[in-house]
Amino acid sequence: MPVLDLMSGFIVELRNAGLPVSLTENLDAMEAVKEIPLEDREAFKYALAATLVKSQNHWRAFETIFEVYFSLRGPEYSIAQDGNEDSEMWREQQDLQMQGEGKGQSGGSMDGLTPEEIAQMLMNALMNGDQAMMKALAKQSVQRFAGMEPGRPVGGTYYLYRTLRNLDLDNMLDKLMDANKQQAAEELTNLEQRLEKDEFESRIEQFKQEVEAEIRRRLVADRGAEAMAKTLRKPLPEDVEFMHASRDEMQSLKKALQPLTRKLAARLARKRRHGRKGPLDFRNTVRHSLSYGGVPADPKFKYPRPAKPELMVVADISGSVAAFARFTLMLVYAIQGQFSKVRSFVFIDGIDEVTSYFKNTEDISDAIHRVNTEADVVWVDGHSDYGHAFEVFWERYGKDINSKTTILLLGDARNNYHATGSWVVKEMQKRGRHVYWLNPEPKSYWNTGDSVVGEYGSFTDGVYECRNLRQLEGFVEKLV
Amino acid sequence: MSKSFESVQEVRDGLKKVNYLADSGIAGVVYLAQRLGKPILVEGPAGTGKTQLAKSVAEMLGARLIRLQCYEGLDESKALYEWNYKKQLLRIQADKSSDSWSEVHDDIFSDEFLLTRPLLEAISSTDPVVLLIDEVDRVEIETEALLLEILSEYQVSIPELGTITAKQIPMVFLTSNNTRELSEALKRRCLFLHIDYPDMDREKEIVLTKVEGITENLADQIARIVRSIRQLDLKKAPSVSETLDWARTLILLGIDHIDAQEAKDTLHILLKYQTDIAKAAKELSVDK
Question: Does A328 have pLDDT greater than 70?
């Protein structure tokens, strides 16, 4: 495949994955590639990244796509020898198949080894941090254990799982630590042990990545880059849906949240300061008039000090929407300086105030953890009952709502066909400043089944769809 | 620019000579920036050597570093140019009678009455310069527009004088701590470089080159402890500059092998929040 076709395929895939690549950036990338020797894969990658990826959040997506499109084009498969690459791949495929059937003995010095010997070699390699050996072993173990067959419609994770299970990588860390202990001449201190452990962990992680890369290489060779890229396509962190996030995605969401809150706080503070000008500052004006001979030529105005809103967050933390509530609480508390007061309540079918968990602690994730474990939110059966929760809320805390209070209601409004208690929301709106409802469900699901968001919504100042960080960020900015 | 790089490796070696250890990503982008004549937007956590990169490149090229520190409220009279009003006034008053209006008018809007500010200075300089626009995320989004002309065309338009075009294309670095999203227009004109915390081996080398009188053994230990600390969930992970401070402290205290107690006692140099310090101290001494 000529380089130009490869590049345009690559850029189309970047756009499909959601990265904003403009035409100028595309042209820049082409220019940049000219300046870099194609054989230098590392430099090639950074050249493309520098011109095409303009946000750190998008790096992972870029890297995956790059690996898929250019994995066959490392130093071993330089682009210059386009012609014989196919035959080489074909030969490897043949090898692979024969291995799969268990009778192949062609090539490679490791083929004769037993699985136990391989495991032992891997342990030694990890122990000594022998990079070349680890690479070779990754190749070998994929060939041996993954059981890959051309054309089989199975995802890469399945092969990864099979390979790693056969190598018993989960117990590898303990084994390494034990071996290390025996080797050491004297007793290791706790600190040293801890450092050794981190070192081994990072080596094992590195080995895993080698295995993953090897599997990907083989899959690309089998299916072609376009098809592969499609299966690997993942939403960008800001587009991950709260309700369906996997554990890995949760981690990346959490990571994305931190810079986001910082940005948001800076932006909001700036906005507050640079709003419209306040009333005339008489004293200041007179003082400045002295330099114009007493003529008030340069009127001075007071800084605007718009009142900060008071916020009450009432969040459903039942299973399906728990992640959403968690993120919203984290976000709200991370920017609590923008509000004069923040109080938070969580409910399932009972309701409990959790404001105190966030006080006297700097660690928001710790507080969230306490919310999930300690808050008393179950009344009867632990299934969402918005009606009861709202009624109790009104009874206990309703009197605290005043004209400065903004109330945020979080949840999917799936009420399990209980009474809705929507009169509470109506009262809230009457007494408070604003009432907003944030729903993590896609709009098309609203008011289907047991969702009664429409009924609540009619008494609020707005119901907002908040499926991902991007939408949540947009809402919070509007709120302040 | 006086000389032009031939390869990425050359950039890397050159930077190493001035005590800046670049990884292949950093060196690659610097090389590209010079070949393509494009500015570099450097982003990353505080204290990872973003500003230092610009300084080191200037030193490597033997170029003058012109620095524009950004802040909220920066405007074109601070960034680009300003007319020297006082001098203009003097000029008008000096010979009120002799000149005609048009002569005076042409005269007071000439080079002589122009005060150059960093951006214009970088453009009009004849000797090689490196322009550093530091913490560009601090200016308001409207002010960013000031930079666009200079970044893409390397020219400055002054209504009274016309357009001043660069005599030579300077290397331009913009740094950002990522406190806000920069505008698309700005990002599009730049190469993007993210400098993250270095990996363990590179950090060790940085410690070895930057701290005098340190042993290989201690540097290795420092790098490993810092890596372990960075893996914790902290408010603010230790930056490279803090690692260096820590290394220097240990040298001053005459410690050549860190044990848990000494690590705990000096943690406050690496970490700046009490909760972080408590967390790290607990993690490092915990029984496993």
Answer: yes
